[in-house]
Design a protein that fits this description.
By secondary structure, the protein is an alpha+beta fold. The chain has helices at 2-6, 20-24, 44-56; strands at 25-33, 40-43, 60-75, 78-91, 94-109, 112-123. This is DUF4440 domain-containing protein.
Length: 124
């Protein structure tokens, strides 16, 4: 989870490493933004591409996101993690802070544990 969240960090002049998302997810992974009335469902490319753009073109700067609490349950070769998280940065030059919750499912693969799906909701 730390690797996934860290992929989007661009603080102190660092460059985000969004390609790591493909390393921590299975290729068929799904990421769901369930903020507001309608969920937005992404495959990996649809999730990564717009975030890479705003994290590298100056739109979203000094961004970081981190877990503040988590609960992980493992049964055999499947796992579920429920996370509380915080985030902060500058969007179009305006500072912001936020928080929310993520639910993430993992499966054990021959290459180790990988994420299979994630959904999140922000606290407004």
């Amino acid at each position: 989870m730390r690797t996934f969240l860290g992929a989007f960090t661009n603080t102190a002049g660092s460059r985000p490493n969004v390609d790591v998302v493909r390393e921590v997810f299975i290729p068929q992974g799904m990421i769901i933004k369930n903020v507001g009335a309608e969920p937005v469902i992404y495959d990996l490319d649809a999730f990564i591409e717009p975030r890479e753009k705003i994290l590298t073109d100056g739109t979203l700067t000094e961004f970081s996101e981190w877990e503040v609490a988590e609960r992980t349950e493992i049964f055999g070769s499947i796992a579920h993690r429920f996370s509380d998280y915080r985030k902060s940065g500058f969007l179009n030059g305006e500072g912001f802070e936020g928080s929310g919750h993520k639910t993430t499912q993992f499966i054990r693969t021959p290459a180790g544990w990988r994420m299979s799906s994630m959904a999140w909701d922000d606290v407004e």
